[in-house]
Write a structure and sequence with these properties.
mainly alpha, 57% helix, 6 helices, two-stranded antiparallel ribbon, 6% strand
Length: 175
């Protein structure tokens, strides 16, 4: 039937005119990890209401080793920016690697921006509302740097949002 629930993994799904969050079991034992998952998926549930839909895309340019190398360099710079009090040069370095990737792969900007709006903002909300610290953000980015090109947006979006927080710029109202 059309209103049958068909969702894989953690996600949100419209069912009988309501949007529901779905979680796979077992849930994480660690309280912060459970809260992170809950708030991440709750954000997905509310993204359409906030006009922050984005969409999942494959980012096919990241199948290229040069693009992945530039992504890793960007991540290393982001990790340093999260670590340092004087982070601006590291942020400039991260953005430089990003813009070099965009210049080499014309569709990269559009594809990456779409997926960062979906997963990056949700990951940031999961971390922020679960009480995670900047050290935990840095650790998460570092641990996931090699997880695969298609999951980069969870951690790049997370890092950039935390760096925007660090800058004390009121950025949320600008999205």
């Amino acid at each position: 039937k059309s209103d049958d629930i068909k969702a894989g993994g953690n996600s949100s799904k419209k069912w009988r005119n309501e949007t529901w969050g779905f979680y796979t079991f077992p849930l994480p034992e660690n309280k912060k990890e459970r809260l992170e998952l809950f708030f991440h998926e709750a954000f997905h549930r509310n993204q359409p209401i906030l006009n922050l839909d984005g969409r999942w895309t494959q980012c096919k340019h990241l199948n290229n080793s040069d693009a992945r190398s530039l992504l890793k360099l960007e991540f290393h710079a982001l990790i340093k920016a999260l670590q340092e009090e004087d982070y601006k040069q590291y942020l400039i370095d991260a953005l430089s690697f990003r813009f070099l990737r965009y210049s080499k792969y014309p569709n990269a900007y559009n594809e990456e921006q779409l997926i960062e709006m979906v997963e990056g903002l949700a990951q940031y909300n999961g971390f922020k509302f679960s009480g995670r610290t900047v050290d935990e953000v840095q650790k998460s980015v570092k641990e996931n740097i090699n997880n695969g090109a298609q999951t980069f947006s969870y951690f790049s979006g997370l890092a950039y949002c935390y760096l925007l927080d660090k800058s004390k710029v009121e950025w949320r109202s600008l999205i």
